[in-house]
Amino acid sequence: MRFFMVLVLTVYFIPCYTQSEKIDPEILDMIATGNRRSLNIMVSFDEKVDFELLKTTFLHQQVPVNQRPKMVIEALKSVAEKAQGPLLEACVNKYNRQISKLIPFWIVNKVFIECQPSIVYNLASLPGVNFISIEKGIMRLEEPTYVGTGEHERSPGLAEPGLYAINAHKMWELGYSGRGRLVYNYDTGVWPDHPAFNERFIGKRFPMSQSWIGYSSAVPTGEINSHGTHVLGTMTGLVEETNDTLGVAVKAYWIANDLVGTSVSSLPPLEAMIQAFEWALNPDNDINTSYDVPDVINNSWRWYDAPDQLHCGQGMVVDLMNAIEAAGIANVFAGGNFGPDNTTISSPQRINTSKVNTFSVGSVNANLNYPYPISDFSSRGPSQCEGSENDKIHPQVVAPGEMVRSAWGTNGYNTISGTSMACPHVSGAVLLLKEAFPFLSGDQLLWALFRTAVDFGESGEDNTFGNGLIDVFAAYEYLADVWQPADPFHPEWDLSVDLISGVEEGGVLCNNIIYPEIHYSNKGSSVIDSIQIKYWFSGIRDTFELMVTNELLPSEKTSIHLGELFLDESAQYELNVLAQIPGIETEYDLYNNRLKASIRKFNVIDIPFIENFEDSSFYNVWWLENPDRSVTWEIVSLTGHENNQMAGSMQFFNYSPRDKQIDKMVLFNVHLPETEETMLSFDIAYAPFLKNVSENRDTLRVKVYIHCDPSTSKVIYEKAGDSLITHNVISLNFHPQNPAQWRHETLSLQEFKGNDISVVFESVNLKWNNLYIDNITLDTFPMLSSGKIPDSPQDNHLVSIYPNPAYDVVRLFINASFKAVGTIRLLNTFGELIDERDVDFEEPVFWDVSRLPGGYYIFQISDNKYFKYSKGFVK
């Protein structure tokens, strides 16, 4: 069925203003004072989409909810392209030299520009331009009012009291768990590996570009604050190992961002915030799909606090919220933590274009006896936006938000308070209702929660409890009186890819072949008679297909081998698998048909090898293991270390908490020759923070694996506390300043000769002081030119160089096996001769290397008769 939509634009005609009337006075002041610095401006346009007409069209034409995002996007893009055309053309073709940034948006009719002040008047004169203002990032976190210590374990098999308070357990008894539904957590980021929800991150199945939109980090992390992790836990958290139920919808999937900062200095630019909402309408960048669009957006932030009516009836924020609502997405907000004496309701919570447009949630304490009291911190209304007394009521509803226990950190738990803790109870309730009624829009589900809320406080709707405490089961019954709910126990079709074995997720490959096996199951009620399986590597065009024609009965599990897959280059690989039922387009869960596995392939490294951390190739050669996704090995700048500008470091001083976290820096697949002794050497720098360093033992270990197998691990070096110190002067946040603060360490790898090994630098954090490592070198003691290996212990050290790494002058210690006079030649790594001299091997040999640039060099020593040796060193 095709749907036809008449696009109506609301055009605000304005008089023939002078250009200055279209420009923010703040910008005019900057121009008037001769400011020559580039400006970050936001250009607004007259035309808008009439969202009320659009929603009416959807209703009258009975447009399915899953088709609305595409139609909303097409309407928005049509308006934006027409309005912004003259400006974009001028910016690209006429003013390109004065513009350093140009970002057009379609979800709101705005263009963000960084430009020279000299062209602002010209831009204001272009057709369609309504106003030019300064771009300001003013989004803030709804700060929790109480944050616990982070140690909040609970006995297995229990659920949080707030979940019972909203009757989530009654939905679970009906079989609803949020299965096949998607939430977008708009917050401070998420620790994605937390056991409460790690398996349901969409990024485990789909490209990261449609799973995470990061401002501070390109990959999911909660390092800004565990606030977002806590919020997500309340929506979807379940620790299956202990059946510890934290969340409302424990089988729902999630996507997230880290757009919400915890301080003014960390606020993102306004353009980033808008981009994160625009992304929500089309995460996979394909308007013909809708499974990628979230069912609900959970917002634990506020944008604007001033006691005025900005963002009330019209403007960019209202347009943004209207677009989200029109696309069928429920948009839920924390109601604010300003208590009963607040003089303002923040934006966008203050918007009252409808009861459910920005669905604001207050907090009650569900740990106390029923009826639950309002939390002291929960913001009270009324909203300052115009309208009837009923229109001004704030919040819309309440939910448990005081002393709520949920996920915290990478694998912990915490109890905190705030309307940010109440809000996800409502978003989780939306996910349960969406599973039961997938054909209903977000605003329909929110209306159901609003109308069935349990009245608290004054009779009827009020400015403390809103319309009352949500009851998700009552909302379900309200909707079930009109619509037939989905059967969660007997879905007709649901094919699930459960596991890719033979490829360790996030693992390491030290050979050229993987043997993947795909495990899949039938979670529906119908017999599947054929399955099409596609698999491919991300970034590689080739897609492989196979057809499985064996019947798969309901609840049956099976697997299929993909055979040998060859990986030649040293790189990061991502194997993607998609299983589909031919002829079936709609399944109960549209996300579990896909799965992916990442693996890092390392080619063999031959020695000599040196790592001086002077360029970014470090990240291509080494493997970092950072289990807590916090502080880990990194490259830092240096001063006073001769020609070395950079070093590897563990910044223990700022590594919180003090919890013996282990971080690893691993060099895989190093081939050691059979006929030579290999030495591992490195420089190290460490200083005490206080006198009793032994009681706070930051530790460095060096381990060796055979091949890539950690089970063969052997510790060949371990120093901690006092023994780690190289500069015995108490130092705050230690940063080495001169060569005397370093120590050179040398370790024999003789017992591993002839093997391919992995070298592991392992740190243990006790938050004492910073550790630095530089000039990691693997090199051999030279063999005799005859091919023989020296037998006697003293002959194992025919030539030694000190210091190594070298700075100004090196001394060569030459074994007595060399007789009389010989020749020493100094070569670079290309074998080019730098210097040559005749020497008496019975006399000390000193060599000035002060003028050499930093790098790796080789001394070639010959007695001009029987012996010829090579020995490398680092400058």
Topology, pairings included?
Elements: E1 9-10, H1 25-32, E2 39-45, E3 48-49, H2 51-60, H3 68-93, E4 99-104, E5 110-115, H4 120-124, E6 129-134, E7 140-141, E8 146-147, H5 161-165, H6 168-173, E9 182-186, E10 212-213, H7 227-236, E11 238-239, E12 244-245, E13 253-257, H8 270-280, E14 296-299, E15 301-302, H9 316-326, E16 330-334, E17 359-364, E18 397-400, E19 404-408, E20 412-417, H10 419-436, H11 442-451, H12 472-480, E21 495-501, E22 507-509, E23 513-514, E24 517-522, E25 531-537, E26 543-548, E27 557-561, E28 565-566, E29 571-580, E30 594-601, E31 605-606, E32 609-611, H13 618-621, E33 622-625, E34 634-641, E35 644-650, E36 662-671, E37 677-685, E38 699-706, E39 709-720, E40 743-748, E41 756-764, E42 771-781, E43 799-802, E44 809-814, E45 821-828, E46 833-840, E47 845-848, E48 856-862, E49 868-874
Parallel strand pairs: 9-13, 9-14, 10-13, 14-16, 16-17, 17-18, 22-30, 31-36
Antiparallel strand pairs: 1-3, 2-5, 2-6, 4-5, 7-15, 8-20, 11-12, 19-20, 21-24, 23-28, 24-27, 25-26, 25-29, 29-30, 32-42, 33-36, 34-35, 35-42, 36-41, 37-40, 37-42, 38-39, 38-41, 43-44, 44-47, 45-46, 45-48, 48-49
